[in-house]
Specification:
single chain, alpha/beta, eight-stranded parallel beta barrel, about 15% strand, globular, binds 3-methyl-2-oxobutanoic acid
Length: about 260
């Protein structure tokens, strides 16, 4: 397997920004891939924007396996990363088994949530030769315990914990780290403090890269858009427009019983 740690460290040194988006199916992965995205993530956000769950915690490994297979078929040049769902990495041994399952179906790297508290899992995964992307800051798999999606890095103890997490995941062998809704100044501080790239989501522009849920970027989940997203398209409106046009065209076709040409 390619040494992604070196590759991504070099990209960061050269100041090359990394663009990452989610995809959970063949056409989306193929469209992103053809548009030169660097990283495609089969995120457990699939649970919310595709499967209709309230948050990511009901997502199962079999669901991620199914979506990773589909996204892998559409991915030729981007790096395909798959998420380990909640409770599929409770121990280091389980993390390796889960990660291997995702690699078997086409993932080239995996991601799980947590920093210092997950070092044993991360070391086990990287020790098994599987490229690993870390995820610190707000951890959506903890949303129920935390009572919402709360910005991280507001207090000194949160800042210290974030820096410790970032250093820990770098040391454990991650090739990059997602910073989710971290105060922009703190995301910048973390970006300066470590040598692997930081990939921000709602964490300001001074990260080494950015990641978004594609549905948010293209306006395909109009019932909720995170505050930090500026959609580039309104695909939901296009779907509604096309559907209404089809409904009207179908209803406007006279039934056979009313046709005079019979
Ligand atoms: O599941 C997901 O889509 C993610 C990104 C938001 C980083 O983890």
């Amino acid at each position: 397997m390619v040494n992604l740690v070196d590759k991504y460290r070099e990209m960061k040194k050269r100041g090359e920004k990394i663009a990452a988006l989610t995809a959970y199916d063949y056409p989306t992965a193929r469209l992103l891939d053809e548009s030169e995205i660097d990283i495609i993530l089969v995120g457990d956000s699939v649970g919310m924007v595709v499967l209709g769950y309230e948050d990511t915690t009901p997502v199962t490994l079999e669901e991620i396996v199914h979506h990773t297979r589909a996204a892998a078929r559409g991915t030729k040049r981007a790096l395909l990363v798959a998420d380990l769902p909640i409770h599929t990495y409770d121990t280091p041994e389980q993390a390796v088994i889960t990660a291997k399952r995702l690699v078997e179906v086409g993932a080239q790297a995996v991601k799980l949530e947590g920093g210092v508290s997950r070092v044993a899992q991360i070391e086990a995964v990287t020790g098994a030769g599987i490229p690993f992307m870390a995820h610190i800051g707000m951890l959506p798999q903890n949303v129920r315990e935390e009572g919402g999606y709360k910005v991280k890095g507001r207090t000194q103890s949160e800042i210290d914990a974030l820096l410790a997490d970032a250093r820990a995941v770098e040391k454990a062998g991650a090739f990059s780290v997602v910073l989710e809704i971290v105060m922009a100044k703190i995301a910048e501080q973390i970006t300066r403090a470590i040598s692997i790239p930081t990939i921000g989501i709602g964490s300001g522009e001074n990260c080494d890269g950015q990641i978004l849920v594609t549905h948010d970027l293209i306006g395909l989940f109009p019932w909720f858009t995170p505050k930090f997203v500026s959609p580039e398209a309104r695909v939901a409106d296009e779907i509604r427009k096309a559907t209404r046009a089809f409904v009207e065209r179908t209803r406007g076709t006279p039934p056979l019983s009313k046709r005079s040409d019979d």
